Amino acid sequence: MRGTPSTPLTVVLVTSNGVGMGHLTRQLALALSAPEGLDPVLFSLSGALPTVRGAVAAGRLPELHGVRTEYCPSRRSGWLPKGGPARRLREVHPAYGWEPYVAERIRALVAETGARLVLFDGVVPYAGLREARRALPGTAFVWMRRGMWRAGVGGDWLAHADLFDLVIEPGDFAAAGDAGLTATRQDATRVAPISIAEAITTQDRAGARRALGLDPDRPALLLTPGTGALEDVGSPVRMALEVLRARAPDWQVAVTSPSLATHGVGAGDEDVVLLTDTYPLARSLAAFDAAVSAAGYNSVHELLGAGVPTVLVPGQSLGTDDQPGRAATLEAGGACLSVPPDDPEGMRRAMTRLLDPDTAAGLRAACRDLPATTGGAEAARLLVDLAGRSGVPQDVAGAGPWGPPAWRRVLPDPRTPVSWPSPGAETGGARRGRRPLRLTEELPPHRVGEDPLEHLLEGASAPYRRARADIAHWIYR
Questions:
Q1: CB atoms within 10 A of CB 192
Q2: CB distance 39 to 384 below 8 Å
């Protein structure tokens, strides 16, 4: 029987899509911190999941070996309608929407794995997530809700907190400057800041430089500008490069360039080491003498947690995340320097200061006084008791039927037209005007593209495969 004392309790870790790897990395930190009593299963809407699976396959993330993963397309996925009547009908009519699809995806995964608990890391508890919560009254639901929201943003989303059995708030190095709506709420259990670096084996300076292909003897600057999905991140980084080459030409430079990135910084530059999908970079931060970085949660807690002297360039258009407030608070405490992305002269001054040995030493000293990043392990311990008190869910056969009702399937509708795979096959055959749908345990090597893909948990059972084919009818025809 699943969930007996000798069997680890399965928990499903759900991540929203976001514009980078923030939610995904935080869930990985929790999964890697899980005690033996928990069996974490990762269910992610992030198109960066192939990066994680690739890191495991290449041996760069051995700690995650054996943790099962499943990708779910978000409503932003390229093969879903982007505009026109199809998009409008999906938005106004629930029977055509993405939300029923994601609700059944979560329900089916809980049934397949026997999960006792679902933990969601994201800002917006989707309607589909809430529907899954209502359909699984015996399964514990937890909201991992990061703080530092922009002032006045998110009141409607916070109204859903009562649906969850527990709300966990990971700490933030800049919590003293939190002016968002979550700061004064009393509905969350607060834990220490979370960093994946706490859950993996980190390299020393020599090992990190070997792993990244850097010169062992020259000082090294890390440029990690984020994906650039919502705003220009290239301009401030290019200014940082200009200052470095003028004032410290002996330094070497590495630029992170994940598959999700749009900035193109460093491409074609022989003097720059491109770190393409180098994950987890937190393992190798000892390689760097300084950094210029976006001010997202994970970047800040990894870099400053490792004591790397850093100039933060806070994003100005990132939904709820108050990156300017985070950067300003940490700069006021002496732990970093900060420059707005539209201030090239400010970047020139900040880089000049960063290259000063006394300034760098002061930043390192301030970082040593920051809180420990043990929140992943603390959150995992909270889940053990809650999962242990939850019921065993029905299996896939008992939890059905799956997919939209019969009347829904025969109506003209805006679902994405695909060629369905035949029973036992993974990929549909070619049909004019339709793209083949893949029903597979495999993911593309670097990023999820724009071809329809129904990704299956490793070792999926035959009943689960059949259920997933039925569920897919919510968004494909």
A1: 17
A2: no
Specify the length of the chain in residues. Answer: 477
Check residue 70 and give its pLDDT.
96
Check: CB of residue 35 under 8 Å from CB of residue 7.
no
Per-residue pLDDT tens over the stretch 425-460: 888 776 777 888 999 999 988 778 778 889 999 999
pTM of the model: 0.91
pLDDT beneath 50: ranges in the chain: 1-5, 228-231, 260-263, 267-268
Q: Is 334 left (phi over 0), alpha (psi -120 to 50) or beta?
A: left
Of 77, 133, 201, the C-alpha closest to 449 is 77
pLDDT by residue (tens digit) across 90-124?
A: 566 555 578 999 999 999 999 999 999 999 999 99
Dihedral pair phi/psi, residue 207, rounded to 5°: -65, -40
Degrees to nearest 5, angle at CA 52 with 222 and 208: 35
Residue 432 burial by Cβ neighbours in a 10 Å radius (0-12, 13-18, 19+) = exposed
Residues with Cβ < 8 Å from 19, sequence gap 6 or more?
Answer: 226, 227, 229, 230, 260, 318
Note the pLDDT of residue 428: 78
The number of beta carbons lying within 10 Å of the beta carbon of residue 31 is 24
C-alpha to C-alpha distance for 211 and 203, rounded to whole angstroms: 9
Give 160's DSSP letter: T
Between 462-471 and 98-113, two packed helices, what is the crossing angle to 10 degrees? 170
Dist. CA 57–CA 107, nearest whole Å = 28
360 phi/psi in degrees, rounded to 5: -60, -40
102: left (phi over 0), alpha (psi -120 to 50) or beta: alpha
pLDDT of the residue at 120 = 97
Q: How far apart are the C-alpha atoms of 289 and 273, rounded to whole Å?
A: 15
